[in-house]
Amino acid sequence: MDNGRVTIRDVAARAGVSIATVSNVFSGNKPVNADLRERVLKAAEELAYQVDRAASQLRSGQARVVGVLVPDLDDVFFTSLVSQLEVLAERDGYDILVASSRDDLGLEQSRLRTLLAWRPSGLIAVPCSDAVPEALRGEVGRLPIVFADRVPPEGSIVDTVAIDNREAGEIAARHLLAKGHRDILVAASSLAISPIRERVHGACDLIRSALDREPTVVELGSNADRGAATFRHWLERHKQPSAVIALTNVTTLSTLSALARLRIDIPDPVSVVGFDDYPWMSARKTGLTAIRQPIAEMAEAAWNRLRARMAGDRTPPTHSVMQTSLQARDSVRDLAAMAEHAGSRDPDPLPNPERPAASRKAVH
Amino acid sequence: MDNGRVTIRDVAARAGVSIATVSNVFSGNKPVNADLRERVLKAAEELAYQVDRAASQLRSGQARVVGVLVPDLDDVFFTSLVSQLEVLAERDGYDILVASSRDDLGLEQSRLRTLLAWRPSGLIAVPCSDAVPEALRGEVGRLPIVFADRVPPEGSIVDTVAIDNREAGEIAARHLLAKGHRDILVAASSLAISPIRERVHGACDLIRSALDREPTVVELGSNADRGAATFRHWLERHKQPSAVIALTNVTTLSTLSALARLRIDIPDPVSVVGFDDYPWMSARKTGLTAIRQPIAEMAEAAWNRLRARMAGDRTPPTHSVMQTSLQARDSVRDLAAMAEHAGSRDPDPLPNPERPAASRKAVH
DNA sequence: GTTTTACTGTAAAACGTTTAACAGGCGCCT
DNA sequence: AGGCGCCTGTTAAACGTTTTACAGTAAAAC
């Protein structure tokens, strides 16, 4: 109380006990008699004592803080992830240090280094490349690490949580094919990002095998505005597709912006399947049909894995793969039904060859 | 190198210097000879040494970490703020601990306490009530604190950064009045939040003085989906307004969702002025007219204030007030022009009595 | 009645830094 | 030549905890 910061010593003095006892009361490491505990808590309350985490961590090696690294804090997908993780961490008494790599490998390096300097109990990262970042090399065995969303397709040396990206692409493509679309454009953010590549492959392979035709792929980047400009440009000098699959929430935005700007309506003449599921997607006259990622479940899976590792689990890395599902709304036109109608065939409005996408995880 | 964690001592040994020298090389507190510094850096490099922030902070009292508390990490406005702050913090060599109060006073208390336990160098908070949170009482003089966005209207004992909420409401109302709207509904998130109250007052006062009529105010809460349901309910049992002012990005979403669900078009029969400026607002056929908050500038102002305080500034608290501006797009119908046209008067399509809203800050 | 055992509390030694106090070397001014 | 600063480096003492080793007491076992 002398200089302003009240320490364990002040509390001990006021309660008339040793500092070890105060420590035991707060850390719960050793049992302490009920009335003594009372005295200590009372003294602490009166002095507004708070254990100093730096000191505590220095001595014990236990940090109760986890680092969270994402590529972009302006992308709702990542902030949703962070939001969920914050809740889970808080529930378990952890704090989170968040850092953004802005999709830059150099920055990722340095952000990771500063995160590691805190000696966190764990790390959840959405890396910006396929490889394990250099800064993490030395830590792989030691520090609990979970990679989320962007994970090397061939499995990894650390625990991972991601969706089935290939399937996500397939679901989108299958839906459009079922609705009779044949001229499908695939809008990706960047093919340099492996999960995006997977989604593209999922969509393209399916389309190719169904239509025997190679679908066009455009890269719109990770910025909504620039992506919109790019896509507008593209639209102005190419034949209009009958449908576009946007493989990212940002590319969805880019796609919609460009179409809006060119006054091209949805779903006629152009249908759209978007990615992710956010409130703005249903806050429009023609609600957006989209591939839903189970973000909450991903966060939970990542957190649970991290918890297990932090609790000492030394089993080989696991790779959780979550299922995506199609949230059907109004942005896809049913060309098939129209064709049938035109040909005055059987009514049978929805010949639905889609398989129901269960949203549960499969652990390898 | 023995147990796995490499310390300053290992580096000192390998470089053949004292630990103080190593410390000086890394902290830069005292100058150290060029070749010695080289030796030290080389040794550190080889051992992959990283200074332990807990130990460093314990001894020096310097944390190089700031706490960031927001009410909701699922609200784009707050995550945008966090995103900007992360960039600024990174630039200046700080890390950020982020916590969400989920708009709950009790949780805010406990989150603040755990943030404070880190002995951060500063704190940027968007509090969930008007008052200075209990947990911060003791820190007000000591710890650099900046409140953002939600600040007590009468000024505060800590530095604050916010927009001119009253004016924001006025700008929205003025725009609608200028466009000939007379039946204006004000959609707020919660009147318990003081900045929202201010925005409501700004809009209502202006409308009242222009029309001599009390506008209706609805509270839609801070969750987009629940707000949409609430608003839908409201719309079903009240006379349809000619325009809606949504005073929050979330209420904007709620408003649009409800209208979309009821198949009510925008801007005819219902015009909408939204809040904030996000990509999804222009990714629609009728782009959304909205009140733009200068988030980047707010973050910068908050950070600069915090930096100054952290550098020892002891002057009385300042209160930055930023200007909002109207981003006009297509969601407001010009009833005035139509009326004129109908009366076959002068063409004069845009009698625009709005004052241009400069977006620069004023410091009190 | 003495020895174990169990239980609680304490003293003191860490933890890995920073920093105050100090020491040695060298140039500079009387 | 001796004294004074300045520069650079070292030693050792913090910082506020946790934790190990130990001591004292009471209950249980012999």
Automatic annotation (TrEMBL), chains A, B:
Mind listing the UniProt keywords for this protein, alphabetically?
DNA-binding, Repressor, Transcription, Transcription regulation
Molecular functions (GO terms):
DNA-binding transcription factor activity; transcription cis-regulatory region binding
- Span list, region Disordered: 337-364
Residue span, HTH lacI-type domain: 6-60
Q: Which domain of life is it from?
A: Bacteria
Q: Which CDD domains match?
A: HTH_LacI, PBP1_LacI_sugar_binding-like
Protein name in the entry:
LacI family transcriptional regulator
